[in-house]
Amino acid sequence: MAVKVVKFGGTSMADAASITKVANIVKSDSERKYVVVSAPGKRYSEDRKITDMLYSCYHDVELCGECRETFDKIRERFRGIVKELDIDINIDKYLDEVEEGIVKYRSADYAASRGEYLGGIIISAVLGYSFIDAKDVIKFNASGDFDSELTNEYVKNAVRKTGNAVIPGFYGSDDAGNIVTFSRGGSDITGAVIARAVEASVYENWTDVDGFMTTDPRVVKNPVHIEQLTYRELRELAYMGANVLHPESIFPVRYSNIPINIRNTFNPEHKGTMIVPASDENTHNKTITGIAGKSGYSTIFIEKSMMNKELGFARRVLSVLEYYGVSFEHMPSGIDSLSLVIPDAELAGKEKAVVNRITKAVQPDHIELLSGYSLIATVGHGMSFKIGTAARLCDSLAKANVNIRMIDQGYSEMSIIVGVDTKDYEKAITAIYNEFFLEK
Ligand code: ASP
Q1: Residue 401 has pLDDT above 70, yes or no
Q2: Residues 38 and 138 sit within 8 Å (Cβ to Cβ)
Q3: What mean pLDDT comes out for the span 413-423?
Q4: Cα–ligand 1 centroid distance for 43 (angstroms)
Q5: Which of helix, strand or coil describes residue 318?
Q6: 226-235, 360-369, 383-392: range with lowest mean pLDDT
Q7: Which of 132, 138, 154, 249 could form a disulfide with 192 if both were Cys (CB 3.0 to 4.6 A apart)?
Q8: End-to-end alpha carbon distance in the chain
Q9: How many whole angstroms from 49 Cα to the centroid of ligand 1?
Q10: Contact, 206 vs 7, CB < 8 A?
Q11: Which of the residue ranges 159-163, 249-253, 371-375 would you say has the lowest mean pLDDT?
């Protein structure tokens, strides 16, 4: 029988009413055998996520050796959930164990992971599914890197013994038994890892929106919904800020071409967005699949006559970035110039040092750091090898009076990235959206 892996995000786990919806969704399809959960998230916009409160507990312990005040709020929330769900578990026993662990281990990862752990215990009681602790199956090496092959083996062995299971998302453990987490939002990755190991027919990722939109709804009102997109399109859009799904979630499912279906716990009738493997085919007949963007970039602009003849020029520039541990995102170049587009967060505090060292390394005629950049990615297999897409994009920006500071199109031709001044960011996204998605 086909099996499905279902992952529920923080909003779906936020309170007893949402958890009841989760249970109904799982029970309504007998193929939904493996359930991965996030920690309870926000119930309303000013609310705090349990994960954030757990990080606060860790900081409290670092400061004063205990976290009673913050932990009591966590305790209250879990107690309330268990009471309302009317399930037979001794939640206080688990809460005591967690509070003690936060004080004892003094580990941010341990503390942060406990929301998923407790949420997993609750949902396994609600569903009557077995509980597999992620620390026993999701494995990291001594340097904290995820070990995909060992994990695959461990998960396969663990699920062999059960017909169904709940597995908390976001964390695992290293060889020494220390808890290690993925980056924030990492329960999406856990879901994908489980889907790979159980050879799921689909990985359903249940969240609080109907799936991906063709662009950011905070910029364009009611953008068109995306029914289907490919893994590669998702990578581009997610990386550039479309934050419905963790961008690393596709790596595990890609091994066996398992589709990911984004669904809405609060609108379960909606088919959501399907993310499919079809590597370089256009899965719909539109030129563009979506537009995403991010602000907060700077550019180091380097000019030197005849740099194209100077062997090792780019290497010397890049070795400076490596030396300072700064990663860059784009490197558009001309004959006598080269620019490095870098997220501000990467450069923070190191701007002067980086510029000075590049100056020493390559002695440019001119070097300048320009900030206040935004990048916008226009993505879609539909534009590969199609003449005129870049022209339409540039024309739409020109008509909106937006100056393009940088433009980058990779070999695959499935995304065009433009850099604009941040003051033009929303205007630019709206212009590109109107050009490609509004009926003319
Ligand atoms: N609870 C974690 C976070 O808030 C992980 C997750 O929800 O996926 O980032």
Answers
A1: yes
A2: no
A3: 92
A4: 15
A5: helix
A6: 383-392
A7: 249
A8: 47
A9: 9
A10: yes
A11: 159-163
Residues in contact with ligand 1 by the CB-under-6-Å rule are: 10, 38-39, 49, 51, 115, 169-170, 184-188
Q: Which residues contact 143 (CB under 8 A, 6 or more apart)?
A: none
Q: How confident is the model at residue 280 (pLDDT cuts 50, 70, 90)?
A: very low
Q: Tell me the whole-structure pTM to 2 decimals.
A: 0.88
Most informative mutation of 184, 194, 205, 245 for ligand 1 (most atoms within 8 A of CB): 184
Separation CA 121–CA 126 (nearest Å): 9
Return the number of other C-beta atoms located less than 10 Å from residue 188's C-beta: 28
Q: What is the pLDDT of residues 288-301, one digit of tens each?
A: 999 999 999 999 99
In this structure, what token pair is assigned to residue 434? Answer: 């109107």
Phi then psi for residue 412, to 5 deg, are -65, -15
- Alpha carbons 71 and 430: distance in angstroms, whole number: 44
Q: What is the pLDDT of residue 283?
A: 53
Give the chain's largest Cα–Cα span: 75
pLDDT beyond 60 at 155: yes
Q: How far is the CA of 316 from the centre of ligand 1 (A)?
A: 39
pLDDT band at 281 (very low <50, low <70, confident <90, very high): low
- Check pLDDT > 60 for residue 279: no
Q: Which helix (H) or strand (E) holds 34?
A: strand 32-37
CA separation for the pair 273, 210 (Å, rounded) = 7
Written as six digits, the tokens of 144 are: 């904290």
- Spacing, Cα 188 to ligand 1 middle (Å): 8
The per-residue DSSP string of 338-369 comes to EEEEEEHHHHTTTHHHHHHHHHHHH--SEEEE
The tokens describing 397, both together, are 């920006």
β-bridge pairing 202-207 and 260-264? parallel
Cα–Cα dist 65/61, whole Å: 4
* Residue 36 token pair: 């991965």
CA distances from 289 to 227, 294, 398, 412 (A): 10, 17, 22, 15
Mean pLDDT throughout 189-197?
98
Distance separating alpha carbons of residues 205 and 412, to the nearest angstrom:
28
